[in-house]
Amino acid sequence: MVKGLSPLVATVLLIAITIALSNIIMSWMTTLAKEETQNIGNKTSAAIDCTSANIDIRSVYLDFGANISTVIVWNNGQVNNMKVTSAQIFSTKGEALNRTNSTEEIVLNIGEVEDIKFNMTNLITQCSNFSQAFVTTNCVGISDKFTATPYGC
């Protein structure tokens, strides 16, 4: 006589295992759904906050005596605590100048103006070497590019 599980016990065990696995999966799915909902809410809030954001490069100054270039940026939007995430000046050869105050975080409130300084030693030695200045912010799509003739030229 071969011994084994009775069909009733096997069915009960199968149902118990299925319920246990279902509970584990449902718990995981609930946690995942809550986290994703929070992430979407944060991104939506940030996007809505940035709808009235704007930044403007007011001017660029080239000081050949001091080998310093200054980009003057203005938060002319309606968003406080807007961060400048990237500021760059490029020569006509595509070389990027280094910021002199690169460790300093630049945060602009509504209407504020900030000077961003760059070392242009051996990269921009005359006005014709200037290509463009570019500034981006933490608000997606909010940036400005300056391609006009800088002051000091």
Task: Outline the fold blueprint.
Elements: H1 7-49, E1 56-63, E2 68-74, E3 82-91, E4 98-99, E5 106-108, E6 113-119, E7 130-137, E8 143-146
Antiparallel strand pairs: 1-2, 2-6, 3-5, 3-7, 4-6, 7-8
State the gist of this model.
With 153 residues, the chain is an alpha+beta fold. The protein is 28% helix and 32% strand.
Q: Could you describe the 3D structure shown?
A:
The chain has 153 residues and is α+β, with helices and mostly antiparallel strands. The protein has one helix and eight strands. A hairpin with a 4-residue loop joins strand 1 and strand 2. The model has no long low-confidence stretch (mean pLDDT 89).
Topology as H/E string? HEEEEEEEE
As residue ranges, the low-confidence spans are none
Q: Please, what is the average pLDDT?
A: 89
Range of helix content: 25-40%
Gross morphology: elongated
**Largest sheet features:** 4 strands, antiparallel
List keywords for this structure.
alpha+beta; 153 residues; four-stranded antiparallel sheet
